[in-house]
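ok trying this again, last paste got cut off
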Amino acid sequence: MKSCCLLVLLICGAQAQSVAIEATPGADLHGTIHTELDQTVSLLCRALEEGAELVWRRNGAVVRLTPENQRGNSSVCVMPVLHQDNGATFSCHLGENTTVQDAVTLNVTFPPVLSGSEEMSVEEKSPLVLNCDTLANPPVSSPLWTLNGSAVDLLAGGFSVTNDGSSSRLSCGAVDRVLHEGRYQCTVDSPLHGTRTRVFRVTVTDKTTKFPLMPIIAGVVVVFLTGVFAIFSRWDRITKCCK
């Protein structure tokens, strides 16, 4: 009988110290809030113990609150939701007992910034680099690069493709008009936002002869100063002869 009473007291004590987060929009069973860019997420932490001090943390770092927003019920607002909020965990705990806490995690969905077209000019024998933004949540498929409607021939064009999860880069070391001029397209498929593309219209121009401007300027300055010093030296001799 005593053990049952002790168990009831322990349960009641734990409940008296508990905190809970209420979210708008609401969290799922796993404590995840699904939202989108530029939306607003409101979080309210309630403590069953009246007047209890509450502390909010974002990914472990303490969130600064006004004094009146630290006891009993405490709220924070994420407005607007940004890319860097994806995966962020907000936790609320008692100021005197960090083990009494509740937490939610944001899952921010967003498409890749991939649209429109870009005009580019590049000289023959110069490098060509095209960048395609692929950062998205959920992740998109591997980008498909095409040139004039056909898949880019990496071997024939001397191309290389690199992907780092946030962008895809198509590049070659030396441009040839026959091989590389035309309409490039980067295409990805998003399970949530559909197909996204970006177009690059590349024009290859004749290679221009570039004069070494700085050495020429330096040479002219040296010649000028040498002439000036020679004139002063000659004038000094003439002056001495006249005395």
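PB: full thing came through this time. The first helix runs from residue 2 to 17.
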